[in-house]
Automatic annotation (TrEMBL):
Residues 3-32 form the Protein YjdM N-terminal domain. It holds the Pfam family Zn_Ribbon_YjdM. This is Alkylphosphonate utilization protein. Residues 45-112 form the Protein YjdM C-terminal domain. It comes from Arenimonas maotaiensis.
């Protein structure tokens, strides 16, 4: 019984070790064993000070943020309630009073 993960491309259960990585004999896809383990690990999002953020947290903006398509900006100290964590460069999805729905980078907020 194999303890190796299935191929991420075709889902084949016949993956095998090929040097430092893994390979699939059915589709020919090769991938790193370290990358396969990292994909299974839960993603941790931290704020500017290193606090771990979770869905539903309240955060405070630590820097004036320009808003594309608007002449105004989100000011320092603006509280943002009930955030949602998402994948991508801008990893916080939220609604800010006066601006509406927007996405923020976690490096520009701190947990309130």
């Amino acid at each position: 019984m194999s303890t190796l993960p299935p191929c991420p491309e075709c889902g084949s259960a016949y993956a095998y070790e090929d040097g430092p990585g893994l390979a699939c004999p059915e589709c020919g896809h090769e991938w790193s064993a370290v990358a396969a383990e990292a994909a299974d690990a839960p993603r941790v999002v931290k704020d500017a000070v290193g606090n771990i953020l979770q869905d539903g947290d309240t955060v405070t903006v630590i820097k004036d943020l320009k808003v594309k398509g608007s002449s105004s900006s989100v000011k320092v100290g603006t509280k943002v309630k009930n955030i949602r964590l998402i994948e991508g460069d801008h990893d916080i999805d939220c609604r800010i009073d006066g601006f509406g729905a927007m996405q923020l980078k976690s490096e520009f907020v701190k947990k309130a």
